Amino acid sequence: MANLLITGGAGFIGGNFVHYWAQNHPDDAMVVLDCLTYAGNESTIAGVEQAELIKGDIRDTDLVENLLREREISTLVHFAAESHVDRSISGPDAFIDTNILGTNSLLKAARAVWLDDGTGLDHRFHHISTDEVYGSLGPDDPAFSEAHQYQPNSPYSASKAASDHLVRAYHHTFGLEITTSNCSNNYGPYQYPEKLIPLFLLNALHGRPLPIYGDGMNVRDWLHVEDHCRGIDACLAKGRSGETYNIGGGAELPNMAVIDHICAEVDRAFAEVDELAARYPDAPAANGRPTSELKTFVTDRKGHDRRYAIDESKARGELGYVPAHTFDDGLRQTLHWYLDNEKWWKAIGTAC
């Protein structure tokens, strides 16, 4: 039996990880530390008996130290982060505070308890990061490997790059046992509807425009959140301390192709489930029209990276990681999750 501290465990990826860990490691205990900002919700992990939710700030070093000591935590999985690029452009300070200062606070607490106290406790600090720290690729450039130079282009990615460097420094300077995973674009259940897939799904249901940045040809690799959780599990079980592992979904697609997939899946769902027309009468598909008529081009985002791609060969070779979800199946499952969980997304304070 192990005791885990999961920061940001009431958010999208962290919440999915809590569900995943409870199902796959039922004897372990989890303490979830979350500020419960707009993207963190108690309902995301409601019913997970192994998880104890504590509302608190990762910048509160004393709180984290006390949790590590009192709960005899041996594994810290660090999800907590401000992550929406658009918000980092309009308000970068919160990203500096949470992603850099917050990570430093966690590292200080972990060092104090796991190293300075001299307990000799086997430990692991796992840090979740993003492929955005590597910058932008040209159309023919090789995919990001773990050796790719850091070239962050937004306040968000710059703050994550800084946190990556801090984690690495605490390993090399103080001997903290760490691993880092850099993931591609996640999608799946419990994602706050500001990111592309849930935003466009819910906009399609309500007959609202689908706003497409620029020409819609920015390319991303898409990773189902359950595959991401499996990758983190593999990092904790098999990852070498001090190493970084790229976790991808093997689905490199331009945004326009993703949007066309969303439109097609919504049309398919309305054709197959008669009740959807009554539940969502403003959707074009409720009236026999294609969802694609909602596509609307808008001014491109400032500093918009053109292409991300993940080389996950290191994770495959060392950890045995292979994504289990195809994008088509994963998107279809995600759409039906949002259709089946209307109560969740209506209760989280969105305009939906």
Automatic annotation (TrEMBL):
Keywords per UniProt: Lyase, NAD
Enzyme class: lyase
Its EC number(s): 4.2.1.46
Gene3D superfamilies with a match to the protein in the record: NAD(P)-binding Rossmann-like Domain, UDP-galactose 4-epimerase, domain 1
InterPro entries: dTDP_Gluc_deHydtase (IPR005888), NAD(P)-bd_dom (IPR016040), NAD(P)-bd_dom_sf (IPR036291), Sc_DH/Rdtase_CS (IPR020904)
Family label: Belongs to the NAD(P)-dependent epimerase/dehydratase family. dTDP-glucose dehydratase subfamily.
Name of the molecule in the record: dTDP-glucose 4,6-dehydratase
Organism the protein comes from: Aurantiacibacter atlanticus
